[in-house]
Each structure stands twice: as structure tokens, then as C-alpha cells.
């Protein structure tokens, strides 16, 4: 009996990073709202069947999954003009047959002790835990004013730390690895934060 296909369409969007293209589905592709990034095939394990298959393409360097899209970052060896349609069709075919692109979060399979230790540190993906009112305001501002724009470009931004007027954030997905977009984003965040939260004097953007 033929398997019933899941109605799905996928389109490609360019991003500020010339090596990254964002492939957007017309439906949710993960059973949770947390964004996940894979730098190597080894990191995927059994968490993301689509990621495992995409890493079989020799030009795929890293993958970033969010609610309804996957950002694919390629190597410099080949141009997206030759790849975009092939990758888009591949992702669409997978999603026609499978409900989820990512089925579990990588941290879920670590031991409880390791998880407890991780909770004391900044999580791999997602904001570090705010420890005071200023940090809470920073996280709220990032989520309301910065994150939507970054996600529309196929990336993510997370709060890392705040100390002595210096705000540190982590850039992932298409934001990472593109010097011009990092500088533009850093300057924009710095201006916004300094206007909204006077205690912020400087923004440092780390690439994941």
C-alpha cells in the first residue's frame, strides 16, 4: 500500500552569508521549538534523520534547524547556483515522507550527571540563564527585537553573559562565518541595547 504523503512545499531563501541558504517549509518540521545546529555528521547520531542524509552531500559543512526551516552551509568548493534546486527538492521529498526533520534534542541522551553539570553552564543552543534584572531585560530585548530578524535570515542569537557593561552573545546558523553580517549585526545590537538598557556599553558577538 502506498504511504500517504504529508502535504509539504519548500522554498529557498538567500541569507547574508553567501555560503548559507535557508530552506523554508510551509509547516513545522520539529516537535519542539528549540533551534539545533549540527557542525558534523558525528554530532547527529539518531537525532535528525534529515541531517544525516544531508551530510552525505560532500559540500555540506553545517546545518541549522529551527521551527520550519533548515539553513544549509556549504563549503567554498561549489556555487549555490548549481546546488539550490537539488537540495530544495531533496529536503522537500524527505518532508513529504516524514513528519519530523529532527526527532530529539542531542542533550537528551547525555547522562543525568552531565546534564546537571551543563545546567550550571551556558546551554549549547539557547540563552544562558539570566541571573539578575538587567540580564532578564537583555534577554527580553533580544527575543523581541533581535531574534525575529536573525531567524528570518536563517540564524539564531543567544545571550551568553553580561559583566562590567559588556554583553556577550552567540551567533549561530547563517550569521556564523560571515564577517560582514557579524559586524552589521553587532553594531545593530549595540545601538539598540545602549538605547534600551544604558548599562550595556559594549557588545561582543561570538560565532558558534
UniProtKB/TrEMBL annotation:
Region named Disordered: 109-128
Matching entries from SMART domains are given as: Nfu_N (SM00932)
Return one Gene Ontology term, BP aspect: iron-sulfur cluster assembly
A Pfam family recorded for this sequence: NifU
Residue limits of the Scaffold protein Nfu/NifU N-terminal domain? 10-98
Record-linked PANTHER family? IRON-SULFUR CLUSTER SCAFFOLD PROTEIN NFU-RELATED, NFU1 IRON-SULFUR CLUSTER SCAFFOLD HOMOLOG, MITOCHONDRIAL
Q: So what family is this one in?
A: Belongs to the NifU family.
Query: Can you name this protein?
Result: NifU family protein
Taxonomic source organism: Luteibaculum oceani
Amino acid at each position: 500500500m502506498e504511504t500517504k504523503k504529508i502535504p509539504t512545499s519548500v522554498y529557498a531563501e538567500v541569507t547574508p552569508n553567501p555560503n548559507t541558504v535557508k530552506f523554508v517549509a510551509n509547516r513545522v518540521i520539529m516537535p519542539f521549538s528549540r533551534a539545533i545546529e549540527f557542525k558534523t555528521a558525528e554530532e547527529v547520531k539518531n537525532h535528525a534523520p534529515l541531517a544525516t542524509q544531508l551530510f552525505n552531500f560532500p559540500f555540506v559543512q553545517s546545518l541549522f534547524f529551527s521551527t520550519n526551516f533548515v539553513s544549509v552551509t556549504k563549503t567554498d568548493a561549489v556555487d549555490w547556483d548549481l546546488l539550490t534546486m537539488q537540495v530544495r527538492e531533496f529536503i522537500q521529498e524527505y518532508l513529504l515522507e516524514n513528519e519530523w526533520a529532527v526527532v530529539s534534542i542531542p542533550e537528551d541522551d547525555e547522562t543525568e550527571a552531565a546534564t546537571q553539570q551543563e545546567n550550571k553552564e551556558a546551554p549549547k543552543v539557547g540563552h544562558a540563564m539570566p541571573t539578575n534584572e538587567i540580564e532578564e531585560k537583555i534577554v527580553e530585548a533580544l527575543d523581541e527585537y533581535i531574534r525575529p530578524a536573525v531567524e528570518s535570515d536563517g540564524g539564531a542569537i543567544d545571550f551568553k553573559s553580561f559583566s562590567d557593561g559588556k554583553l556577550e552573545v552567540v551567533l549561530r546558523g547563517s550569521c556564523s562565518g560571515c564577517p560582514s553580517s557579524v559586524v552589521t549585526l553587532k553594531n545593530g545590537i549595540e545601538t539598540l541595547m545602549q538605547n534600551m538598557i544604558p548599562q550595556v556599553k559594549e557588545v561582543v558577538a561570538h560565532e558558534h
